[in-house]
């Protein structure tokens, strides 16, 4: 009888131990399912299978139906705030414009970066400064704007699980192992979608005119074919565009970006002066340009017109004044910043066509339809006008 009692007690203890072990395992499994850091930032992230190269034609007149996964899920909270992924020169300029634009005066702006090392500098770049000569962030006079502007990291943004009505992806490809995947995951995880939240919002991906490849001087617009082929840079950008557009977002194909001390002109003139480097490409090769602030204002315009105009569309944005490499250098030399520099040399003469036997002449961007759709015009209608303007001369 005593032996039976002992056996019964041992059976009960064994059952209790097994139950506790199973509960612990379940809890551990649940904990491990938390949102991990975005894998597309790490070198160990799986590579996205490349789509077969193909000539594509996309027009601003034809929208692509958004993916159903772009709508917000019940486990995510929705926000009226605007998220800007990538706060470099373009992103910080956009944040400044958003804070002061009447359409966004009641909304907060969230800048999303890879890390926190530049957050203080970004706050100083975006928020107004006091008249004090000190550059310390303690001398900001942002007032209400300072309360509406917040910086966070991509890892934190993904972990929060919050979706934003409007999202701009303007981070460059250099910060990602898998650029198209990064665009797709931001659109699917951080954006509320084009038809949710009472009218929906906008997802803007800032692409590049590099997708048109080299040319012989022909005109291209939003509907022109994009060759793809064996160029990894072009294919990566085209895949990123598809990620944005297929979810109901839009892509802005931007011309070559510049400001006073940033852009091709600075690279060419400084390189020739300091290293004696020769400019790659023919002197009369066609280049399309766009000031960083104008790129930001075009992005802002896409947000303002909303998904009723931009959902599933591609736009082409430039200053509308194609120029040449030689003319770019001539315009830059008019500015006091470059007054002491000389004209660089170019690979190949204009007469013999330079590199590519005359094939690499460049292309002329025609973005008139995009300008009309976005209701946008550039502040600087040409590179030469900027370089000779009082605003460029006042810059340090």
Automatic annotation (TrEMBL):
InterPro entries on file: NAD(P)-bd_dom_sf
Signal peptide, first to last residue: 1-23
Protein family (similarity comment): Belongs to the NAD(P)-dependent epimerase/dehydratase family.
Composition skew (Low complexity), residue ranges: 27-45, 53-79
Top-rank taxon, per record: Eukaryota
Protein name as catalogued: NAD-dependent epimerase/dehydratase domain-containing protein
Keywords noted in UniProt: NAD, Signal
Region: Disordered, residue numbers: 27-79, 125-149, 340-365
Keyword Ribonucleoprotein appears in the UniProt entry: no
């Amino acid at each position: 009888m005593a032996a039976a009692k002992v056996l019964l007690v041992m059976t009960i203890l064994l059952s209790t131990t097994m139950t506790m072990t199973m509960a612990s395992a379940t809890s551990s499994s649940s904990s491990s399912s938390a949102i991990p850091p975005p894998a597309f930032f790490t070198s160990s992230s799986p590579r996205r299978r490349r789509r077969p190269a193909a000539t594509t034609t996309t027009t601003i007149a034809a929208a692509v139906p958004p993916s159903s996964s772009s709508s917000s899920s019940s486990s995510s909270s929705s926000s009226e705030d605007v998220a800007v992924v990538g706060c470099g020169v373009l992103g910080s300029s956009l944040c400044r414009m958003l804070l002061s634009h009447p359409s966004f005066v009641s909304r907060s702006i969230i800048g999303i970066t890879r890390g926190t090392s530049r957050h203080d500098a970004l706050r100083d770049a975006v928020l107004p400064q006091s008249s004090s000569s000190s550059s310390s962030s303690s001398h900001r006079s942002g007032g209400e704007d300072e309360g509406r502007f917040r910086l966070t990291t991509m890892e934190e943004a993904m972990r929060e699980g919050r979706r934003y009505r409007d999202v701009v992806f303007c981070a460059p490809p250099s910060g990602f192992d898998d650029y198209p995947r990064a665009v797709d995951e931001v659109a699917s995880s951080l954006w509320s979608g084009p038809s949710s939240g009472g009218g929906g919002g906008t997802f803007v991906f800032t692409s590049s005119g590099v997708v048109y490849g080299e040319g012989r001087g022909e005109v291209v617009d939003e509907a022109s074919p994009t060759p793809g082929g064996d160029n990894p840079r072009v294919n990566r950008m085209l895949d990123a565009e598809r990620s944005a557009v297929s979810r109901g977002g839009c892509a802005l194909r931007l011309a070559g970006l510049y400001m006073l001390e940033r852009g091709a002109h600075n690279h060419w003139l400084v390189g020739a002066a300091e290293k004696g480097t020769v400019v790659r490409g023919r002197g009369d090769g066609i280049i399309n340009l766009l000031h960083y602030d104008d790129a930001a204002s075009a992005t802002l315009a896409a947000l303002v017109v909303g998904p009723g105009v931009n959902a599933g569309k591609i736009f082409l944005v430039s200053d509308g004044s194609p120029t040449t490499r030689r003319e770019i250098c001539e315009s830059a030399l008019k500015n006091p910043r470059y007054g002491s520099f000389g004209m660089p040399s170019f690979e190949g003469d204009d007469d013999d066509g330079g590199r590519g036997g005359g094939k690499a002449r460049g292309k002329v961007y025609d973005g008139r339809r995009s300008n009309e759709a976005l209701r946008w015009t550039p502040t600087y209608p040409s590179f030469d006008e900027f370089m000779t303007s009082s605003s460029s001369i006042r810059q340090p």
